[in-house]
């Protein structure tokens, strides 16, 4: 798939690699995580550039190992380095104490420190300067995620006239929540400096449009087929919904591997034949892990006949460990796991097995294969790739998916999954019960439906539909002078 005649210049918060200090020298490792998982298949096709932050002290040695890594591939990695203060205010501050909680409807967790906003603008400017240096005529600049919503505004100021596209990986809140953001008009108008803005679901797109109607009065909005056109004097933006996904065939193939099947049988054997529930999450309060543990506790309290016959395996990959809220969450989860195990455990049966580390792909697939039920119950999630990976890995067309109605994936998977409100402890416990009792024929019917949907709407379809909008969307050439495109209302 070619997005357009030129190259693709990807701009994301992180590079798709981590730079690690080996015993002798630095080396570069491809990294894990939702965004990277989703974009990795693009790397092979894109002969372009990937710009992103490397969380290390700047050094010629790092630049050199990244150049060597790039030389072995068909694309170039361009690192951005942040000072400790920029990391603290832009990344930990504005991105993770303002935008992340607010956009996940958790405004009480926000810290609207005004210095965070200044850092957001300054760092977005740095990314834009690098993109302006790298982008050539005819290239498509594709910016990813909430950290970098103001990059197009800076690029326009630098008089970059290439196609600028943006994909928003997390939810977009409705006006009642978004209005709390002290820089709400600035963020909205900055997004309108992109030619194409993509969201995960129609709900996110609807919320964005509703926010525009409230806060950007000059915007003229009209719906055309499956996207929305937003016109402002001198600029036009296409707004669409493009649900991100996984490489279904790769997951299905990997899950069918003999070594993975054997490892799955080992896991089942080690659990003494207990029905296995599985949670796999990045350690994050949006993923609803304590709420899920409460639901499981309620399940055990109300189903003593199943003690010794059911086990929850909760796999958590460490994340954002330098942010205090995440450190607290880690302790809370550990405390709850040990309380539940202490309250219900018996010799020969541990109710919850807790794994706090990243699993490699074959091990992850073996857990997906071994799990009778996947519990994917985020409080809010842009999409959630774990539920799609679980379906792809269920090569025998069995297994039950319990899915939060607040995950973006629920829009596609509602007819095969058991949908739950993750805040409703009793309803989640009831869904666990239903999943355990479900006849095999119904499991198969549901899982076939789920797998067909994930197979047909895979990562390549996401990429192709986004890139085709980006290639054919409007090009904002006739721009008014930048001063006229400043936010309509400048906040104090
Ligand atoms: P994330 O919040 O990181 O992504 P998600 O979509 O669930 O969330 O992806 C997590 C990825 O990490 C999955 O590929 C999963 O396999 C992997 N993972 C999780 N725990 C793991 C473990 N212990 N070991 C190994 N791998 C593990 C953000 C948004 C999401 C959106 C994605 C993509 O928050 O809503 O779906 O981007 O757009």
Which helices and strands appear, and what pairs or packs with what?
Layout: E1 8-14, E2 17-21, E3 26-30, H1 34-45, E4 49-53, H2 60-71, E5 76-80, H3 84-103, H4 114-134, E6 140-144, H5 151-157, E7 163-167, H6 175-178, H7 184-191, E8 196-199, H8 202-215, E9 220-224, E10 227-232, E11 235-241, H9 248-256, H10 258-270, E12 275-282, H11 289-302, E13 310-317, H12 324-344, E14 352-356, H13 361-370, E15 373-376, H14 386-393, E16 400-404, H15 410-413, E17 418-420, H16 425-437, H17 440-456, H18 459-472
Parallel strand pairs: 1-4, 1-6, 4-5, 6-7, 7-8, 8-11, 12-13, 12-15, 13-14, 15-16, 16-17
Antiparallel strand pairs: 2-3, 9-10, 10-11
Helix pairs in contact: 3-4, 4-5, 9-14, 10-13, 11-12, 11-16
This protein binds adenosine-5'-diphosphate-glucose.
Adenosine-5'-diphosphate-glucose (ADQ) binds at residues 32-35, 37-38, 169-170, 244, 280-282, 315, 317, 358-359, 364, 381-386, 389.
Q: Which hetero compounds are present in the coordinates? A: adenosine-5'-diphosphate-glucose
Distance between the termini: 45 Å
Q: Cα-atom Rg, whole angstroms?
A: 23 Å
Strand arrangement across the biggest beta sheet: 5-4-1-6-7-8-11-10-9
DSSP summary, beta strand count: 17
Mean pLDDT: 91
Helix content: 40-55%
Main beta sheet: strand number and arrangement?
9 strands, mixed
């Amino acid at each position: 798939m070619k997005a357009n005649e030129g190259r693709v210049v990807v701009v994301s918060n992180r590079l798709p690699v981590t730079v690690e200090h080996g015993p002798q020298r630095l080396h570069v490792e491809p990294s894990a995580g939702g965004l990277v998982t989703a974009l990795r298949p693009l790397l092979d096709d894109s002969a372009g550039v990937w710009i992103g932050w490397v969380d290390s002290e700047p050094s010629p040695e790092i630049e050199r190992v990244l150049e060597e890594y790039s030389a072995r591939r068909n694309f170039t990695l361009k690192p951005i380095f942040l000072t400790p203060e920029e990391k603290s205010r832009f990344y930990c501050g504005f991105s993770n104490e303002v935008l992340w909680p607010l956009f996940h409807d958790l405004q009480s967790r926000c810290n609207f420190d005004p210095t965070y906003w200044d850092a957001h603008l300054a760092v977005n400017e740095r990314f834009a300067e690098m993109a302006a240096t790298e982008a050539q005529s005819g290239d498509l600049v594709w910016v990813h995620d909430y950290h970098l919503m103001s990059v197009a505004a800076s690029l326009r100021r630098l008089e970059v006239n290439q196609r600028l596209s943006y994909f928003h990986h997390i939810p977009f809140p409705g006006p009642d929540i978004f209005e709390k953001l002290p820089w709400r008009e600035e963020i909205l108008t900055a997004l309108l400096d992109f030619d194409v803005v993509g969201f995960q679901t129609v709900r996110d797109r609807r919320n964005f449009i509703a926010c525009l109607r409230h806060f950007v009065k000059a915007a003229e909005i009209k719906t055309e087929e499956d996207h929305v056109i937003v016109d402002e004097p001198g600029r036009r933006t296409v707004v669409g919904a493009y649900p991100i996904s996984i490489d279904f065939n790769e997951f299905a193939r990997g899950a069918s591997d003999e070594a993975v099947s054997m490892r799955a049988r080992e896991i089942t054997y080690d659990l003494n034949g207990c029905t296995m529930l599985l949670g796999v999450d990045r350690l994050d309060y949006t993923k609803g892990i304590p709420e899920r543990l409460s639901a499981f506790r309620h399940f055990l309290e109300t189903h003593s006949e199943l003690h010794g016959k059911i086990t929850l395996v909760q796999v958590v990959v460490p994340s954002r460990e330098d942010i205090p809220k995440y450190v607290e969450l880690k302790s809370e989860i550990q405390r709850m796991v040990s309380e539940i195990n202490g309250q219900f455990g018996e010799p020969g049966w541990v109710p919850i097995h807790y794994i706090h580390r990243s699993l490699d792909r074959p091990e992850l697939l073996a857990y997906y294969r071994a799990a009778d039920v996947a519990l994917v119950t985020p409080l809010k999630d842009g999409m959630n790739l774990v539920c799609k990976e679980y379906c792809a890995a269920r090569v025998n067309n069995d297994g039950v998916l319990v899915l939060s109605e607040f995950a973006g994936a629920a829009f596609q998977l509602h007819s095969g999954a058991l949908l739950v409100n993750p805040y409703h402890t009793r309803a989640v416990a009831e869904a666990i019960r239903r999943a355990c009792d479900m006849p095999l024929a119904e499991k198969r019917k549901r899982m076939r439906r789920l797998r067909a949907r994930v197979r047909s709407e895979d990562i390549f379809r996401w990429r192709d539909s986004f890139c085709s909008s980006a290639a054919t969307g409007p090009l904002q050439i006739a721009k008014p002078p930048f001063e006229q495109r400043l936010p309509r209302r400048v906040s104090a």
